[in-house]
């Protein structure tokens, strides 16, 4: 065929017409083949001695081609057009098909071709767009003898190996019968194998085990490499050993698929049958007048809920109106769904249902002591609060605010109060809340409207007098959607919450029986009107002894229990526990302490699994193996001229605050502040500077010192913002120490604000500041006289060993600091 002829007829190449004509003339049934689309293709299969010694190769990558197969192949036109043209120019029209793996045929080397392939006759060659289609009729296995062209078009010299077979052998015949029976078993359960395949199967008999085995392998879904191994196995008996398990596996998969389909169909039929029966039952009941539709069922459900409730008259009137409306609405209408949801909420609330309070002070003390170590003043305050409720008859209508640093147990104390009272407990965090609808609900006109958190709390606890905790109330947000803090005013005001109105319910609710407990880290961000409605209970930080007791009695046992470990497996000494507290968890609360103990448990668990000791012992000596180097070192009190230790309060608890004053040069007069100070502390520094300049002679300092001195006042840890009205006395002492050239050579700390006339004003956070002083081994402090009562109310264990001086005016401070 010339190139011009090929280009003219490339869309319908049928250069095998003569061969097909001769094949159709053959009436030998043993040479009949089939196309995959059902059209029979009769071709005279050439005998092995008529097959060419040189053939062109076509690589395929999905699965190998077997001699017993007749199926269409589609190949890339651009890559294999020349190969197919040359095959078409041969008299035998035979092509070698070889499986080259599942990776593709784009980048091949001649070494990628297997030694064994299948010679096929090419029928019905057609070219369409970028593809060439033809029907391949498997003829016989070939073995590559020599490569004549290692680049496309691939040309090889081949031999056609014999396939040793003893068809009369009993084992061979038994295998052949097993394969035929397996194929027949596969046909009815897999619809992929149709009637044409049954006719095709009739061509094979136990006396032709080779083609039968190849056909059985070809119809399985085994992987390409497995099938190539079958193709390369020449002895028929050995080949049958490999194919029969593949066929058996195919039958098992087909049966499983059939069972799954039957189960799915059975389920669908059952559901359809149930649906039809239910519909018939509804019609029968309706005809007999004994049925209830969905609307009547809903109305009965809501009325049954109200039987055990004491619903206020105004609420009952609203419910009756809504029930009447529900009874006339169509169940499929949107308004029906809205009304039903509204009634669902109204009838789910515990109208008139309350729990009995346990106003037993000894029980309350037992619960608080069991759940918390330390905090004796807080516990007493709570017991006093409950004692007051004993005489009133209940503790409802109270709003308690627990204020303290993170991790001191505010939330857990709220739970303990609820347990001591025998009340239901409900907690939700208002931190970051920006939408007042979270408190007062959405109006029902909105899509997806819901009641507020308080109504949801009532539905969950099922009583009207629970303990409701509003966590993180100092972190309320505000946005264009409203001000939640203002919405809380109605909730927390005892004069208003008797008639609390939720926008969704649109009926008045009584919140006066609820005990509200709020938590906050600081009071600065709580709006004044909201703060005015709360009774404050301040939780200060823990000292080391309290943390030690909390860790031994609560944190460590809880961690061991959570991880299914015992004290015998992990032994933590008291000295090591104290070192954890002082070196790794010095914050006011115990949350960081729990994290560090958790680290110890994790690392000890690794040792138990890898090294398999009976016990892992943690002591001071090996503590750094578990936690690394200590985060906190022993704080050294700074000493020297112009250096004074102050006491400060932060949201994380008390802290020591060293203040340094130094003379920079004598070129001119000046005053400089550093340390990221807030406006209040800057004003305190300026007052201290002015007071010191005006009273140098009174305190025996160099009266000319500041005339030519440029003074720099610094508060260390400059990256940490600092503000608050309690550093005036400390700054004045630092400046006076610099002017007197007299250092404070003993551990001494002080706090207090100073006026321009020298009066010492009271400050807050006395407990936290005393704890901070003890933590730094400072047992001598100066406090304002107005804070004497605050100090005397401290627990005895905090005051033990402390020397406290109280000052009305700064001259009282100077006498203590600069005594000879």
Automatic annotation (TrEMBL):
Compositionally biased intervals (Basic and acidic residues):
1-22, 31-40
PROSITE patterns, sorted: LON_N, LON_PROTEOLYTIC, LON_SER
Is-annotated flag, keyword 4Fe-4S? Answer: no
Subcellular localization is given as: Cytoplasm
Biological process GO annotation list?
Answer: cellular response to heat; protein quality control for misfolded or incompletely synthesized proteins
SMART domains found in the cross-reference section: AAA (SM00382), LON (SM00464)
The reaction(s) this protein catalyses: Hydrolysis of proteins in presence of ATP
**Superkingdom of origin organism:** Bacteria
* Enzyme class label: hydrolase
The UniProt entry annotates the active site at: 726, 769
Detail which positions bind ATP: 404-411
User: Could you say which EC number(s) this protein's record lists?
Assistant: 3.4.21.53
Induction profile: By heat shock.
Domain (Lon N-terminal): give its ranges. Answer: 55-251
Q: According to its UniProt record, where is this protein mainly located?
A: cytoplasm
GO molecular function ontology, one term from the record: ATP-dependent peptidase activity
- Residue stretches making up the Lon proteolytic domain: 638-820
Q: Name one GO cellular component term.
A: cytoplasm
Q: Subunit comment for this entry?
A: Homohexamer. Organized in a ring with a central cavity.
* Stated family: Belongs to the peptidase S16 family.
Sum up the protein's function in the record's words: ATP-dependent serine protease that mediates the selective degradation of mutant and abnormal proteins as well as certain short-lived regulatory proteins. Required for cellular homeostasis and for survival from DNA damage and developmental changes induced by stress. Degrades polypeptides processively to yield small peptide fragments that are 5 to 10 amino acids long. Binds to DNA in a double-stranded, site-specific manner.
The protein depicted here goes by the name Lon protease
**Organism field:** Vreelandella populi
